């Protein structure tokens, strides 16, 4: 704050008993009162035409528009604050951070949305805690240049891949199931439907639609799948093995590839082809 002063004209007659006293934030110098540079006593500054800043090019503007505060830098109105909204004054007019001065964290409400081009593309965290990336034109899709899959741990059902949450039925972590009439049941090479239908591995024990079902990716099965690097085939009761059945009437279907010799880790990628043993 700039300092200032004001004084009194010396009266033609003086009263020796007159005493001038400076209050808080004011200093008395002879017959002048100086306003202190640092003010701690002022609790309110209200004015419909109020602008505060370094100069006319760098200030906080309370006056131009009612119910709006505008931040001006280098002669340009950059940011404005209105009821429930902090935004640039002009579209595409102000960046949030720079390449060398970056914000540390971004905190959004549970169902918050990051919105590009007024709905052209969105990133949305829904009520179920799932992250959705979408575009206004579904035909355009979403471009994902690459995806990195890591080998899962020894925990049954642990998954790094594509997961669905639909279908009824109780499932066990690390077991393979086939979908039939909207319900999940244990996959089995000994029957056509249980061997050739849509397959998935349960992420946890519980209701299929709640715990999630892996349809492709890295996964840890509930039992050993063979030798690392070898082809894995469907067995019985939702399990896999590294050798193909030769039993008449069974179905041979590749499930993917083994990634660990003992703990059940594998790349799950069910083939769309199968063979029935005559």
Q: Which terms summarize this structure?
A:
rod-shaped, 2 helices, nine-stranded antiparallel beta sheet, five-stranded antiparallel beta sheet, 278 residues, mainly beta
Write a structural description.
- This protein folds into four domains: 4-35, no CATH class; 51-88, no CATH class; 108-145, no CATH class; 159-276.
- It has helices at residues 192-196, 208-211, and strands at 4-7, 26-29, 32-35, 51-55, 58-61, 68-73, 76-82, 85-88, 113-116, 121-125, 131-135, 159-164, 170-171, 176-180, 183-186, 199-202, 206-207, 213-220, 231-234, 240-241, 251-252, 254-258, 265-268, 275-276.
- The strands form six sheets. Strands 12, 14, 15, 16, 18, 19, 20, 22 and 23 form a nine-stranded antiparallel β-sheet that branches. Strands 4-5-6-7-8 form a five-stranded antiparallel β-sheet, with no helix packed on it. Strands 1-3-2 form a three-stranded antiparallel β-sheet, with no helix packed on it.
- A hairpin with a 6-residue loop joins strand 22 and strand 23 (265-268).
- The chain is rod-shaped and about 125 Å long.
- The chain starts with a strand and ends with a strand.
- By secondary structure, the chain is mostly beta strands.
